[in-house]
Amino acid sequence: MPSSNEWSIHKGDCIPHMLGEMKPKSVDFSIYSPPFPSLYAYTSEDCDIGNTATVNEEAKIHLSFFFKGLKRVLKPGRVAICHCCQIPRMKRTGEVGMHDFRGMLIRLGERAGLVYEYDWSIGKNPQSQAIRTRSRELQFAGLESDRSGSRGTIQDYLIKFRAPGENRVPIRSKHEISRNDWINWAEGTWDWRDVIETDTLNTAAAKGGDDTRHICPLQLEVYRRCILLYTNPGELVFEPFGGIGSGGYVALGGESLKTCKRIENPRRYHCCEIKDEYIQQAKKNLETAIGQRERSKAQSLFAGVME
User: Fold this and answer.
1) Which residues form the DNA methylase N-4/N-6 domain (predicted)?
2) Could you tell me if residue 256 is inside a domain?
3) Which residues, other chains included, contact 194 with Cβ-Cβ below 8 Å and sequence gap of 6+?
């Protein structure tokens, strides 16, 4: 298992890892984007939830075990943030409309014993999404031919679950979130102008030569806000579907190239990942974050001496 004093990566399926190998009640905060069944395939592994053919029964079985494991490792009173979006039904299967993936995740989380408390939505640029997805429901062509099929953008959701019980260590580290920050973040929908779609780590290096699978890292600003909201410095951030380590990059103090924002006081990080290329890239990203943080610290010390 690749690791350092501040981070570790488990190579393997997160479900048995959470259900049997991780210590119970050992995670201070979890953030994750579960594979979207039937929509994206990330690997050819049998344990990849993205390889299920439908959003229905098979995916529910996998995800029900996932939520049982998550509840087992999350400390009482602590938070897990689940990123998702609604999944379009595929015309190739003769279906129309949307699968309520968000609702399914909430029901499965509650069934496992987690408390559903809230969800934020993240707005999307309609023109950008129309161009990227070529969705007729968003395009002007659909608007001008038959508006009955037109709809708005498919937004992202951040579902907030909490483990039952009392949080024994209050999260109240000073000088990390200002009142002005909270006025902005407390809005039910985060603006796409603040959460920039391309504010992600580079995915190209994580793809193998014959790899046509999908990589969709979550925006770094989403990680930054959630980690600052729901952890104290030095606490453990767990990402069950680690990918290229975006959550760890932010938790360890890596800087966004788009916003130049970073977390000043680092957290610890643990994740699971089944794909070797992703693990290798995640290691590089985590080491880069630590290097950036140490250089920033040295520059601050030098500036203080010069003054």
Assistant:
1) 28-284
2) yes
3) 184, 221
Rounded to an integer, what distance in angstroms lies between the CA atom of residue 275 and that of residue 23? 24
Partner residues linked to 50 by β-bridges: none
Helix (H) or strand (E) holding 161: strand 156-162
Domain span holding position 180: 7-306
Two tokens at 30?
């979890």
Q: Tell me the CATH number at 52.
A: 3.40.50.150
pLDDT digits (tens, 9 = 90+) for 180-234: 999 999 999 999 999 999 999 986 665 555 454 546 689 999 999 999 999 999 9
DSSP H helical ranges for the chain: 14-16, 57-73, 101-111, 126-133, 140-145, 179-185, 220-230, 246-251, 276-306
In a domain, 2, yes or no: no
Strand partners, 157: 84, 121
Question: pTM to 2 decimals?
Answer: 0.89
SS3 sequence of 185-209 = HCCCEECCCCCCCCCCCCCHHHCCC
CB-based contact 38:98 (threshold 8 Å)? no
